[in-house]
Amino acid sequence: MTGKPLSIDDRSARRLSKEVKMTNLKGQDILHGNQFSKKDIDKMIKIASGFERDLRKKDSLALLKGKILATLFFEPSTRTRLSFETAMLRLGGGVISMASAESSSAAKGETVADTARTVSQYADVLVIRHPRIGSAKEAADAASIPVINAGDGAGQHPTQALLDIYTIRKELGSLKNLSVSMVGDLKNGRTVHALVELLSLYQTQHYFVSPANLRMPEEITSHLKQKGVWIEEIEDLEKAASESHLIYMTRIQKERFADLTEYEKVRGRYIIDGEFLRKLKKKTTILHPLPRVDEVSSDVDSYPGAAYFRQVRNGVFVRMALLAMVLGRR
Ligand code: CP
Q: Which pTM value belongs to this model?
């Protein structure tokens, strides 16, 4: 073979072009954890790994040059918003962003649907976070560009679930037959709602560890049971953790409580600290979508299995892959 060696951009473009043909995400909305097949996940992992390798050699690629991402966050965010924006910039595209719900026309009563129709005139892809379940679907129904759900209230957070899957695969080497403890506010935790849908494709077993009033929603547990997934709902974290390869901690979501005295009753119920880890018989991996409040103490951060900041970094590669898959090759 003769000619110039391929640049990283050329190689990424070729790899992407090949992978996109094998998936059906081009032009699609990303709204729910249950919309992905194992084939989609495998392709996403492959593309994200390629970007991770590319970014070790180069600061940015040019795959999405000229494309624009709009981020509309009607609820606070650090990781999801900044990692989507980073992902688009690393792919050579541009970003427009609503500074806050209060500074947009939502404050004047504009609907999510009209906001999505409007942003469709400016951008090529829209990422939305909103406090109401179903709002991302509402935006997707109105928009003429792909819409990505970055969290709809206590509903779903599918891109977090995909980056969690990527992280679990990297940390544990495989997704198959894992025993996973999901811990904390399973009622309001949209990350666990989406993640358990994806993990259940891989014959995982699940302990759902929560206070009685914050249990996993019944529609999710019954769907899992229908699919033959082994689940046990318990309140004893030590028992569940000692039988798990992975502990997925979540924050008790104060902002979802109508009555703060109810929050105070469950606040601090589950805490992982150095002493807790010393009691466990075997090494375990600890993930958390973050932000944390008090459920994982800072003395756990140096534990080799504490993977939550590596999980944060993986969010960039996975969101690069998703943007590239949804938008396709230029
Ligand atoms: N994990 C997550 O959704 O974090 P942010 O709320 O900071 O986006």
A: 0.93
